[in-house]
Write a structure and sequence with these properties.
The chain is mainly beta. Helices cover about 15% and strands about 40% of the residues.
């Protein structure tokens, strides 16, 4: 909040800063990302937590179950890497953020708001 004074009356005027909305976005508990399904091109928006415990790919797979057939298999891909269920999704404001990553660092996916994880859907043949 910024306090301004008028020249004539010297009474403080409260002015809400335009960056207040930005601060609320940074401090929010949820982080929107998009999961793009390969079988129909549908984008599913989900919210991931911004603080531990973070969402794992196994948890993400469980979240997507209502959108999949019973005979479907899913492989997640982010920035050209095939991800295992042990990977953890960690929200980050910038791709090269200096924020500490939870261990193990090789199993951490740093993702920006509105980032996209591809879900390659295949059907199990009987």
């Amino acid at each position: 909040m910024v306090t301004l004074y008028t020249v004539q009356q010297h009474e403080p005027i409260q002015c809400i800063s335009s960056s207040l909305k930005e601060e609320e976005k940074i401090n929010s508990k949820e982080w929107p990302i998009c999961i793009r399904l390969s079988n129909n091109g549908q984008d599913i928006r989900i919210q991931v937590p911004t603080q531990p415990p973070y969402l794992t790919l196994a948890g993400l797979r469980h979240t997507l179950l209502p959108h999949l057939n019973n005979s479907s298999r899913v492989k997640f891909i982010y920035l050209g890497r095939i991800l295992s269920d042990q990977h953890v999704i960690v929200p980050t404001p910038q791709p090269d953020s200096d924020l500490p990553l939870p261990p193990p660092k090789n199993r951490t996916i740093q993702i920006q708001k509105e980032g996209v994880i591809q879900a390659m859907i295949s059907t199990i043949s009987k």
